[in-house]
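Onboarding guide, step 5: your first structure request.
Type a short instruction followed by the sequence, for example:

Predict the 3D structure of this protein.
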Amino acid sequence: MNMISNRYWMPVGWILCFAGVLSAPAGIPAGETVFFDVPTNWVLTPPPAPSLQLAEVPGYPDAPDRLTLIARLHRPDAEIHGPGPYPTILVLHGSGGLWSNDAITNGMASQFEEWASVLSSNGYLSLYVDSFNPRGISTNFANRLPHHDPALDDALCSPNYERPKDVVAALSFLAAHNEVDRDRIGILAFSHGSQVALNAILDPSVDLTPYTVRYINESNATINLEVPSPVRIPDALPFPVVCALYYPGCSHYGYHGQASSISAGRYMPDRRTHVLLFHGTRDSLLGVTDPDATPLTGSL
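The system replies with structure tokens like these:
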């Protein structure tokens, strides 16, 4: 895994390391609501229906054969930073979702509004994609487990094999946008979204033969279930050159084997990107059991 040096287009003093530290200056341009589709060959059959609140958003297409995502696009002030193209950050929300109190009409949750202000004020264009409402999930997606009913469980929006499709859709949208610098696209992700990013940027050397998840079902039985493999970012699309990922789930039902194992190599990021991972010893969901342990060396 490569670390980022200051020669890589990060002129804002490592803002990706300091969530909430920088205050949002006034005068930041308002965001824009945009829509774009997941590639049709990757859409589940039948496609999931959007949530009722998303279906009521003006301009959202009534197309039951497509999976159309909603996102917020925030630009820098052109009078300060010029007309672009701009370095661009794709932001992936966690299991709590994108919107304040789960309501699209409320706008983005405060943490994402703050990120939008900080990034815009420093000359970055940023895109915030809602992965939940397009799949009919109107509330958060916390504590979803894989089990018997995909309409209820992790499979509907799995960070391993379903939601990474949204990364490809977002990159396709950004690649066609004349304000985006295709050579300077990065990902900023949180929790569920960080797991998504890790699966989207796997190195080509990673074996994508059949994957399984392991879990305890409602009858207290241990289940090994074969599930789809991660998707690849097509060669024609720009590849993220930097990823800042806050507390990803890592092994996540054993999808990549044990996260502590370096032998499988299934968490090897593509060598074209630079990855910065954050994890806290007091994380109540996925705590570090031995914060003083010597770090493993080699491929993740």
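Each response can be followed by summary notes, for example: Residues 15-278 form a domain with the Rossmann fold fold (CATH 3.40.50).
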